[in-house]
Amino acid sequence: MSLEILEEEIKLELEQLKLEQRARATDLMCQAWEEALIEGIDADILAEVALNVSITDMLQTTPEKKVIEALAELPKRIESGDFTPRLVLH
Q1: 12 is a domain residue
Q2: Residue 13, Cβ neighbours under 10 Å: how many?
Q3: Cβ contacts of 80 within 8 Å, gap of 6 or more
Q4: What is the mean pLDDT of the chain?
Q5: Is 67:55 a contact under the CB 8 Å cutoff?
Q6: Whether residue 2 is found in the same domain as residue 34
């Protein structure tokens, strides 16, 4: 097996791992969100706190400029529907 093929396989495995971690993180966040709603915390307050905690955490591990660039993309993502809930039929 060539080095290039091995590197590509590793890259694909890492991408798959990130997808799995994102899915698990989403599940955990949704559970925590639901628990907070059940306890009577307002959804707007939850959203504000979640953004504050997320940005604060990002700044611990990511250069400030990168965080600012990521946040600058949010209006476009909102307008394009990236955060619009999808209707799921079971």
Answers
A1: yes
A2: 10
A3: none
A4: 92
A5: yes
A6: yes
In this prediction, residue 90 carries a pLDDT of: 55
Q: Give the pLDDT score at 32.
A: 95
pTM assigned to the model: 0.71
Shared domain check, 71 and 48: yes
* CA 36 distance to own-chain centroid: 19
Q: Find where tokens 């990168």 sit.
A: 66
Q: Which domain holds residue 69?
A: 42-81
Cα separation, 30 vs 57, whole angstroms: 18
**Average confidence (pLDDT) over 52-79:** 96
Report whether 70 contacts 61 (CB < 8 A): no
